[in-house]
Amino acid sequence: MVGGVRVVSVEGEIDHTVRELLSSALLSGYGAKPPSRIVVDLSRVTFMDSSGINVLIAANQQVRGAGWLRIAGAQGPVLRVLALVGVDALIPCHPTVEQALNA
Predict the structure, then answer these.
(1) Which residues of the chain have pLDDT under 70?
(2) pLDDT at site 96
(3) Given this model, what pLDDT does residue 32 score?
(4) Is 58 left (phi over 0), alpha (psi -120 to 50) or beta?
């Protein structure tokens, strides 16, 4: 947590084998409710398939209205996938975690 914002740093590949773990990291609450503001740091993610896209979209839908979800640091192929499927138009993408926190 950084100033009331959950920051989730992800590393490696995001595919169907880590889908549930990622969803839990984003949305599991420390109490009765999930966080309302989330930054997902993808700077060390080397691959993401539709499973990761679906988790991000679902998390965004769950927090929308009461808060927000932002993506930080997506690089190369991951950034291209986000742009190709239009996630970057749905979920704000920022070059760094700091910029995502301060947007």
Answers:
(1) 29-32
(2) 98
(3) 57
(4) alpha
26 Cβ contact list (under 8 Å, min separation 6): 6, 8, 34, 38, 40, 55, 59, 69
Find out whether 3 and 35 touch, Cβ atoms under 8 Å: no
Beta-bridge mates of residue 41: 9, 72
CA distances from 32 to 3, 27, 28, 39, 99 (A): 20, 11, 9, 20, 29
Closest CA to 8 of 17, 16, 28, 65: 28
Return the number of other C-beta atoms located less than 10 Å from residue 43's C-beta.
Answer: 15
